[in-house]
C-alpha cells in the first residue's frame, strides 16, 4: 500500500481544450497520465490536488471522471480554481454514486491513510485578488483548512492544497500560520505550470516541507509520498 499525489490533470475529453500553451510537455498528456499511473496499484491511494476537469458541469465532466475512475488506486479529490463543475458535497457524492465513480471528497474533513490524516482545501492565491484582497474568500479557505486539520485529531497530518501557500515573491501568511500552528510537517500543492514551475518554493520553510505536484512538473507521474 502506498500514498501518491498529483494535481492539475486538466482533462477535457468531452470538449477538447489544448494545454500545450503551457509547454510542449502537455502534448499527448492524456496518454502520459495513463502511462504514469502504471506505478499505482489498486490498493494504493492517490490524492488529486484540484483542476481535474475543464468541464463546466458534472455532466460535462463525466468522461473525465470516467478516465480518472478507471485509473488504478483509491482517489481522494480536492477543488482547484478551474473545477467549475464543483457543487455541494451531497450533489457531487450523489452524481458519483449514480455513475459508479469511486471518489472521496477532501472538503471540510480529513481522509485517512492508515494512521495518517490527509487534510486540505483549495487554498488562496495572489492571482485571485483581482485588484483587491478578497478577505471573505481567503478567510473561508483558512477556515476550511482548519476544519480539516481539527477533524484529524492527534493523528499525523499531511496537507494537500491546490494553490501554493508560498512561491517566489508571494506568501499567504494566513495559510502558513495554520500549517505552523498544527505542526504540519509536509504540504503538497499544484497550480503552477510551464514557466511558472520555476517559481515554486520547495523544501523546508518554517518547519513544513513543501512539494509541488502539478502534473506537468511531475512529467505526469504521481509522486510517491508514503509506502
How is this structure best described in words?
- With 227 residues, the chain is α/β, with parallel strands linked by helices.
- The protein is globular.
- Helix content is 23%, strand content 23%.
- The protein has one domain (3-226): Metallo-dependent phosphatases (Purple Acid Phosphatase, chain A, domain 2, 4-Layer Sandwich).
- It is built from five helices and 13 strands.
- The strands form three sheets. It has a six-stranded mixed beta sheet with strand order 5-6-7-10-12-11, with helices on one face. A five-stranded mixed beta sheet has the order 4-3-2-1-13. Strands 8-9 form a two-stranded antiparallel sheet.
Helix content: 10-25%
- Poorly predicted runs of 5 or more residues: none
Total of helices: 5
User: Would you tell me the structural class of the helices and strands?
Assistant: alpha/beta
* Average pLDDT score: 94
* Major sheet details: 6 strands, mixed
How many E-type strands?
Answer: 13
Order of strands, main sheet, comes to 5-6-7-10-12-11
The CATH architecture can be given as: 4-Layer Sandwich
**Whole-number count of domains:** 1
Summarize the structure.
The protein is of the alpha/beta class and 227 residues long. 23% of the residues lie in helices and 23% in strands. The radius of gyration is 16 Å and the shape is globular.
Write the layout of secondary structure elements.
Elements lengths: L2 E4 L22 H8 L8 E5 L12 H9 L3 E5 L10 H10 L4 E3 L4 E4 L2 E6 L13 H17 L4 E6 L4 E2 L2 E2 L1 H9 L4 E4 L13 E3 L2 E5 L10 E4 L1
Parallel strand pairs: 1-2, 2-3, 3-4, 6-7, 7-10, 10-12
Antiparallel strand pairs: 1-13, 5-6, 8-9, 11-12
Amino acid at each position: 500500500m502506498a500514498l501518491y499525489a498529483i494535481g492539475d490533470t486538466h482533462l477535457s475529453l468531452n470538449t477538447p481544450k489544448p494545454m500545450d500553451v503551457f509547454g510542449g510537455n502537455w502534448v499527448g498528456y492524456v496518454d502520459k497520465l495513463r502511462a504514469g499511473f502504471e506505478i499505482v496499484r489498486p490498493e494504493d491511494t492517490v490524492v488529486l490536488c484540484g483542476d481535474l476537469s475543464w468541464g463546466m458541469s458534472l455532466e460535462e465532466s463525466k468522461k473525465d471522471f470516467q478516465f480518472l475512475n478507471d485509473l488504478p488506486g483509491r482517489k481522494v479529490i480536492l477543488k482547484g480554481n478551474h473545477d467549475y463543475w464543483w457543487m455541494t458535497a451531497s450533489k457531487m457524492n450523489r452524481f458519483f454514486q449514480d455513475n459508479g465513480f469511486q471518489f472521496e471528497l477532501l472538503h471540510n474533513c480529513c481522509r485517512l491513510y492508515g494512521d495518517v490524516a490527509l487534510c486540505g482545501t483549495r487554498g488562496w492565491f495572489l492571482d485571485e485578488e483581482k485588484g483587491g484582497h478578497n478577505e471573505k474568500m481567503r478567510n473561508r479557505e483558512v477556515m476550511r483548512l482548519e476544519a480539516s486539520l481539527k477533524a484529524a485529531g492527534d493523528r499525523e497530518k499531511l496537507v494537500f492544497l491546490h494553490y501554493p501557500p508560498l512561491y517566489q515573491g508571494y506568501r499567504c501568511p494566513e495559510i502558513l500560520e495554520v500549517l505552523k500552528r498544527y505542526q504540519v510537517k509536509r504540504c503538497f500543492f499544484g497550480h503552477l505550470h510551464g514557466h511558472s514551475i520555476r517559481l515554486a518554493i520547495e523544501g523546508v520553510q518554517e518547519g513544513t516541507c513543501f512539494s509541488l505536484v502539478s502534473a506537468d512538473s511531475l512529467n505526469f507521474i504521481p509522486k510517491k509520498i508514503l509506502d
